[in-house]
Amino acid sequence: MMSNAVWLPCLYAGFLPGVIYCWVLMRKNGNIGKLRLPGTWYYWLAGASMGLFWFGSIVLYSISTLKLGDLGASIGWPLFLASIVVASTVFGVLTGEWARTGTRPIRTMTVGVAFLVIAIAILSYAGQA
Fold this sequence. Notes:
This protein is mainly alpha-helical. 79% of the residues lie in helices and 0% in strands. Helix 2 (41-67) runs antiparallel to helix 3 and helix 3 packs antiparallel against helix 4 (103-128).
């Protein structure tokens, strides 16, 4: 869990300038009031849950690097990132995000995901050796 202590300053280093910049732009464009419109509670809930799921995945990543042994730090990160891409692609397809893109982008994405799954299998095997 020691590696999770590194994430706090790193995340705040990106969070604070991002929030300040968005706030300045929203004040400049006069659309801060839209944050409190009826029906926007869902967006706040979705954003908060994405943050919780992301931090949960970081905690699981930290635990898994220890379980992978000596190569955990070098194998764990690519496995983690590839898993994120595969999961987000699957959820994107299931939610219809790619519905009107045509067959060529879907084919390209499928080939890319297949390569990532193969890479996950190779890295997983390497972590066992």
